[in-house]
Amino acid sequence: AYTLHERIDLLVRIVDLESLDVSGVSAETAEFMRDHVARHVGRCAIIDDSGWASRLAGLLAPGSGVELRRFGAEQEPDAWTWIGARATGEGV
Fold first, then answer.
1. Cβ neighbourhood burial of 44 (10 Å; 0-12, 13-18, 19+)
2. What are phi and psi of 63, to 5 degrees?
3. Of the N and C termini of the chain, which has fewer Cβ atoms inside 10 Å?
4. In this structure, are residues 71 and 77 in contact, taking their beta carbons and an 8 Å threshold?
5. Are 3 and 40 a contacting pair, CB within 8 Å?
6. What is the pLDDT of residues 63-92, one digit of tens each?
7. How far apart are CA 54 and CA 49, in angstroms?
8. 53-60 vs 27-40: helix axis angle to the nearest 10?
9. Considering only CA atoms, which of 87, 90, 2 is closest in space to residue 45?
10. Which of 80, 24, 41 is nearest to 89 (CA)?
11. What is the DSSP-derived secondary structure letter of residue 74?
12. Is residue 54 within 8 Å of 10, Cβ to Cβ?
């Protein structure tokens, strides 16, 4: 999306996830991801019903300046409002 728009607000939905292992992500890959997030993401809403949001936030957001906020699955409408968007029903 940021190839079309300089900055985007992002909603990440982490539901029904049994495990998340980021230990295999190299320092270079993590730095690359943080750099892209810092340059292109303004707000990031994470829908999380499993407690993995902190791991994702730790991987993407430290020192990036991104506004990051966690929402429970039942708060998804609030997450869409917070990023100034609405669900399209397409479900990616």
1. buried
2. 70, 10
3. C
4. no
5. no
6. 667 888 889 889 999 999 999 998 887 655
7. 12
8. 90
9. 87
10. 80
11. G
12. no
